[in-house]
Design a protein that fits this description.
The protein has one domain (about 1-100). About 40% of the residues lie in helices and about 0% in strands. The chain contains 4 helices and no strands. It is elongated.
Length: about 110
């Protein structure tokens, strides 16, 4: 049997309430991760050797650049993408007036109303 593991897969570091309740995965995907995730993670990390052809295909598609057709590889690739740190891009512009302080540097204003 491929992806056999006696231990259920839980990632409480990234999903404090569990994978099923995270909202990131469908019911089918969360079932696959919970039942086969430990074996998939061991294969991905290299601590386990592939035991059959299905696991070899999983590794080839997961680490290759080709299109992923295996359902197990699709789900685990999605899991890896979800747990990656999110990059935050901020757009802010600083004008010359803000840098030099020309608008706010002088305490008196000649155009003030008396």
């Amino acid at each position: 049997m491929s992806f056999h593991s006696e231990k259920a897969f839980n990632d409480f570091v990234h999903f404090a309430r569990g994978i099923r309740r995270s909202g990131e995965f469908s019911i089918r995907e969360s079932n696959i991760l919970e039942t086969c995730g430990t074996a998939m993670m061991e294969l991905h990390n290299g601590t386990r050797k592939p035991q059959d052809e299905t696991e070899e295909i999983f590794l080839k598609q997961l680490h290759g650049d080709e299109v992923i057709t295996d359902n197990y590889a699709k789900v685990f690739k999605k899991y890896l993408n979800v747990i990656q740190p999110r990059r935050l891009h901020r757009l802010c512009a600083v004008g010359e007036e803000d840098i030099n302080g020309s608008d706010y540097s002088s305490g008196s204003d000649d155009s003030a109303i008396d």
